[in-house]
Amino acid sequence: MEIFNTMRSQQTHSTPPQGPEGAGRTVPQPQRSDAGSIQEQAKQVEEKADTQKLKKQLQEITDQLNKEMNPLNTSIRFGFDDSIDELYVSVIDTSNDQEIRKIPSEEAIRLAAKMRELVGMIFDKKG
Predict the structure, then answer these.
(1) Given 9, 28, 82, 113, which residue has the most CB atoms within 10 angstroms?
(2) CA 57 to each of CA 64, 70, 71, 74, 112: distance values in angstroms, whole numbers, following the listed order
(3) Helix or strand or coil: residue 29?
(4) Predicted TM-score of the model (pTM)
C-alpha cells in the first residue's frame, strides 16, 4: 500500500493542476535564442538587399531625369550621393559646363555624412 501512495503523490505533483488552482502558474517555454538570432540575421540581409535595390533604382531615376532634361537645354542636373543616400540637384552653366550651385550644398552633404557616422558610433548602428 505504501508504494501505491507514493506513486499517487508523485503523479499529482508532476502534472500541473487544471482549473482555478492552476490558473496563475505558467509552464516555462524553451528559449529560442538560436532561431531568433537567425531570423534577425535573415532580416538584416533582406534589408541590405532592399537598400541596394533602392539605391540602384534611385540611380536609374536620376539618369532618366537627366536624359529627359537634355533636349530642353536646361541647366539642371540630378544626381545621387552614396555617402548620404540622397538625391541632389546641380545648376550648371551650359556655356562652359561649370556647376553654379548644388542643392543641398557640398557642406550640407559632408555634414549629413558626418552626422550619420556619429549616430553609428553613438548608437552602434547606421542612420
Answers:
(1) 113
(2) 10, 20, 23, 23, 22
(3) coil
(4) 0.50
